[in-house]
Amino acid sequence: MTDKKIVIALAGNPNSGKTTIFNNLTGARQHVGNYPGVTVEKKEGWLKHEGFHITVIDLPGTYGLSAYSPDELVARKVIIDEKPDLLVNIVDASNLERNLYLTTQLKELEVPMVLVLNMADIAERNGIIINYKLLSQLLGMPVVRAVGTKNEGTADILNAVISSFTGEDKPLPRLVRYRPEVEKEIENLQKLFYSSDSTIPIEAAASGGIVVKRYPLRWSIIKLLENDSELMEKTRAHSQSQVLLEQLEQSKQRIINKSGNDLEIVLVEDRYAFIRGVCREACQSRSIDRISITEKIDNVLLNRVLGIPLFLGMMWLLFQLTFTLGAPLMEWIETGVAILGGWANNQMAEGLLRSLLVDGIIGGVGGVIVFLPNIILLFLGIAFLESTGYMARAAFVMDEVMHKAGLHGKSFVPMLIGFGCTVPALMASRTLENPRDRLVTMLVTPLMSCGARLPVYTLLIGAFFAPQAAGNILFSLYLIGIILAIIMARVFRTWLLPGETEPFVMELPIYRLPTLKSVLITMWERAWLYLKKAGTVILALSIVMWALFTFPIVDKNGNEFESATEQLESSYAGRMGKVIEPVLRPLGFDWKTGVALVAGLGAKEIVVSTLGTLYSIEDDEALAAEEEPVVKSFAQRAREQSGYTPLVAYVLMLFTLIYVPCLAVIAVMKRETNGWKWPLFTMGYTMALAWVVCFVVYQGGMLLGIGV
Amino acid sequence: MTRTLKDLAPGEKARIKSITGNGSIRRRILEMGLVPGMQLVMERYAPLGDPVEVSSPGLFLSLRKEEAETIILEQNGEEEQ
Fold first, then answer.
1. Looking at the complex, does the CB of residue B20 fall below 8 Å from at least one CB of chain A?
2. The CATH number of the domain where B24 resides is what?
3. Torsion sign over Cα A411, A412, A414, A415
4. B13 lies in which domain range?
5. For a Cys-Cys bond, which of A13, A184, A589, A665 suits A661, CB 3.0-4.6 Å?
């Protein structure tokens, strides 16, 4: 027997615990993607319950359904276009009034709904007593109690969904009634449309031509009264909208005259008045201790003196978690990849195929998964900070700094992740609502020195600087990256993408202890995205890079090369290094450095192994592991053959820091911005910036005689 | 002189009179339930002075001073009517 199919969409405010419920419902049967045309994450999952196959769409968390933010536009588009059978509205029971605002908006879209009062335990602990039955009658929809973090109520939600769907449970439909003058005008406007049909066709230009979408009539009129930009535009585009628009203006004017306020305030006020009425009847709230735990914690965490040190401490912990715990795991993976490569090496006859498999594919895949421990741990920490509610506080503490740089408090999260790996950092920029803020954040995040650049620094520092200076040198590089990011953000915000910054009206959620499961699922989702998105591109590019460095395999006369160094010099990549040498000369680099920098396009850590090959260091691994004698001989040869001085080594580190983030970043940026324009721009600007900064430092250093 | 949310010192409370400004910022402020008549408490300023945190029962909200400035408060005398 085939299962009956139901499609439900989960809607709710950010911080309503929607994701936890989604995870409880679907477990690992999830699919994460992007909505076409916008950088809003699309999550879908499915499950089976009592003979029903239920598809669950997780809508972006929103406070309303206006046309101002991409998230809200996506949410309402999905509801209107994909026509889910049911909406499941997740609300925070401990903060019912605010959460029900979205409910009133969803209700107007005329899709059957189930209301889930999540975090009911917190509400009960706070002394809020809710009469579920009465609430259900007043709102005209089934109401279910749930505690997502404890996986309570999951079956109840599904049962309510099914009985709503089958029509067993049909509460009376109830809508927000606005004040009489508004209702009267809604009625007037309704008369302009064919009265028998409860939906209106509004023509919208979509890809490929004109399509007719059907919106609920009452909702459309209310949105038009609110001056909703999307609907106004579509109405204006309609050939016969003149009468409607005139009538609309008159209606608005009459309401403004009568109420003394503009439409936006009037409608929001009426919705909140309705909600307050509902809450007064269905909820009882015993006097709550105003200084809740959250306030006590915030008195410390957001303290004017302690706020910033505590924030920095938290970030320090996050990095210890990521890098200290991650290091041994990375080593295991490296060893594993090396063993696999060695094994393949022994199994196969020498030749191009072996070279492709061992150096191109195994090496390329190894390069992707070696970062996985770091990425998983970093995401684990971030998922924890996000789900406890601290992330919003971090944005609160940091906003002043970020805002001065032309960014948003929330930009700090992707930039922070950028220290680990730029690829997931770009994906983290999705938390920014304003497209301009998001774009500027994405453009400057590559300047945060990522983990892959670290091996280049440590090798060069180990080779050319005294151990006492190592820490300072390393710190200076990270600092320069941050300073450049701030400067560039300011520059982009002023000249490239001027305009209003995103409003910083943000709820500071009540602190809560997340479940291990929800943190793990969030973490895994992102790690998987990294593997999938970055992994495939990195693999493809590794093969391209392998080809550039491998061919031609014989010299002009058809003889084999005598040494790896000679082969590399003659390869296409080697030739590219020579071609760009004149450009790099003013920075103190020779063609060998040029080759290494070309190799670094694929992934920055390859700069090290390429330099190793160029200076005929036979033992790659010993160099990467920074075994002292090997590093010393590397330093010796680099000094002799390329004239490396500490100054040149420092400039090379600087260049590595600034120039083109790796090709995986370019690929992800293309995906996130839906086009080649911004990734190409990023390549161009980072290279130009790297050159200018390195030129100034090298020439300045030469002039002042520092490090020569 | 009109008093706005920006002028409130930490610990002070006041009632919202109206909300000026426009576009998405105003919309977001309204959607968060900051409507005329609501009483707000200034909880704190951020460590660097901006943004600020305000509260009303069940809500902790942060907003920048430039946004707080669009929220006009009732004068002290008007509060207890």
1. no
2. 2.30.30.90
3. positive
4. 3-76
5. A665
